[in-house]
Design goal:
It contains 9 helices and 40 strands.
């Protein structure tokens, strides 16, 4: 294969071309290169001929031919076909969870064609499988469909996705791959949100100071830096698996511990530990997430910060089976920003890795106000009606019951500019509690029907001037990625009328990074607010 992942230093990684190392001394060549597809160690060699430089699996497995095909793209596969279908963990009832395979939307016309030919899809994992017919009853035409499954393949194997029909619409394969990533010997790791998470694909990475779901028969690592607690359970292959919430607290400065923990997750879950998680962070305008990041305000461009452990990150875009590099705009030496054109066509972005399943999609969407007579009723968990004009942050952050007279979509926005997306396809929908929610958008086919912001909370009780001066004095030194809680604090200051403090915090943020000294002041402020509330 031509490409590999180079983990040249602890906690960092970069995708590299084999040609780069020709006629060069390669330190630690036996343990620094990894396959981008399966995550196993690969080795560099020069064979001569037309393609002298390459990486190869020293120990061949049944996945190795697929790795060569998907990594180098010789088959002309597009992004969706290479990374496979996503897998999601979602809450069910009480402390029970569900496993789902996500099928991206393919449009009404394609669903109708599949229905006409009685096309069905088979999800196979080990000795078990599930078949489901492709039509507008079983699949959404404009948002990802989550198909529940209660089984997993044999450890280290993938799910097989087979489309069965004598007249299969070819375009289905443009969005639906023939596989989905399976579990490893330790189980699986998912991103964490209160509404569920997306599986971290094997070969991808996780980072310290973030929350994750762990699905495993048992999870009890002997490292004090890993904290976890049981939050639920899930039935897979007829057996009970446990769902944990997990965080890691370690830095690459502690090389021994960092490397040991990284090796633990690599051997048990097939993922590596990265000090800084590579990601694109939408900055402006605010976006709602519905398979794609959709800006809620009209504009020609979407501005995003780039977070990476590399001094010069690579930001990839996708066109068919090809990739291209996006130019970086340097706000400051340590801050990188990209500008994405707001287009009705999908723009797909990834940082530092081409095909790993953590890509982010941006897409423009017309938002207009509807005049149709839609009806919505909100109730709390006791069945009491809630007036739209009296919605508070406390009410919006608790469990709600929504009754609607038509199909629509709901976005619940938090102070950190992230949004929970809920499809209201039935008359009554339960919305699980989510902290720090401040705004509601109800969308119907022709745009926004209703928007409600929460009532502002009271002025925070602390000495604003003192913290304002401390923040101004900390405008220097190293810059680090802005954590979500810091952005929440900024928006909270704006909402509560502490505008001087909000301005000083905003001036300390450049792109997606903030001065580390300012972050320390904000930690003190956070503690001060909590102690007086």
């Amino acid at each position: 294969m031509r490409y590999a992942i180079d983990r040249f230093r602890i906690g960092s990684e970069e995708e590299v071309d084999a040609d780069y190392f020709y006629n060069k001394f390669i330190p630690r060549r036996q343990d620094r290169f990894f396959c981008p597809e399966c995550g196993e160690i690969v080795y560099w060699r020069s064979k001569g001929g037309t393609h002298p430089n390459q990486f190869y699996h020293k120990v061949k497995t049944e996945r190795s031919p697929e790795c060569d095909k998907r990594v180098d793209g010789r088959s002309g596969l597009n992004l969706y076909e290479r990374i496979g279908l996503p897998i999601f963990l979602t809450p069910s009832f009480g402390e029970h969870y569900l496993l789902n395979i996500g099928f991206p939307p393919v449009g009404a016309n394609l669903l109708n064609q599949a229905a006409a030919y009685c096309v069905k899809i088979n999800i196979i994992g080990g000795a078990r499988q599930r078949a489901i017919y492709i039509n507008q009853t079983n699949f959404y035409d404009n948002v990802t469909t989550l198909v529940p499954i209660d089984f997993i393949p044999t450890y280290s194997k993938n799910y097989k996705i087979q489309i069965e029909s004598s007249n299969t619409p070819f375009a289905l394969r443009n969005k639906w791959a023939d596989y989905a990533d399976g579990f490893d010997i330790g189980g699986a790791i998912f991103t964490y949100e209160e509404t569920g998470g997306k599986k971290i694909r094997r070969g991808d990475g996780i980072s310290p100071n973030r929350q994750y779901y762990i699905v495993a028969k048992t999870f009890s690592p002997s490292y004090s830096e890993i904290s976890s607690r049981v939050i639920g359970e899930i039935m897979l292959n007829g057996e009970k698996y446990t769902v944990y919430r997990m965080t890691i607290n370690v830095t690459a400065n502690d090389e021994k511990s960092f490397l040991a923990i990284s090796n633990f997750f690599k051997s048990r879950f097939g993922v590596c530990l990265l000090e800084t998680f590579p990601e694109v962070i939408p900055l402006w305008p605010p976006v709602v997430e519905q398979d794609a990041m959709v800006p809620v305000l009209k504009g020609r461009k979407i501005y995003c910060g780039v977070s990476s452990g590399n001094a010069i990150p690579n930001v990839y875009g996708y066109s068919g089976s090809d990739t291209y590099l996006l130019p970086l705009k340097h706000e400051r030496q340590e801050c990188k920003v990209i500008e994405i054109p707001a287009s009705m066509k999908e723009t797909i972005i990834s940082v530092d890795r081409k095909y790993v399943g953590r890509e982010i999609v941006f897409k423009q969407k017309n938002i207009e106000w509807s005049s149709f007579s839609y009806e919505i009723i909100l109730e709390d968990d006791k069945g009491t009606d809630i007036s739209m004009s009296a919605i508070t942050q406390e009410i919006l952050s608790s469990e709600l019951l929504i009754k609607a007279n038509a199909k629509m979509e709901l976005y619940i926005g938090s102070m950190d500019n992230t949004y929970q997306h809920i499809v209201i396809a039935e008359n009554t929908v339960v919305v699980r509690a989510r902290k720090n929610s401040v705004i509601l958008y109800f969308l119907v086919e022709d745009g926004v029907f209703l928007c409600r912001e929460t009532i502002q909370v009271k002025h925070l009780d602390f000495d604003e001037l003192i913290y304002h001066k401390k923040i101004k004095q900390a405008y220097h030194g190293k810059m680090v990625p802005v954590p979500r809680w810091a952005m929440y604090l900024l928006y909270n200051c704006k909402a509560t009328g502490n505008l001087m403090l909000a301005e000083s915090i905003a001036e300390a943020i450049h792109g997606s990074k903030i001065y580390v000294g300012v972050l320390k002041v904000l930690m003190d402020l956070r503690i001060d607010i909590v102690s007086k509330s």
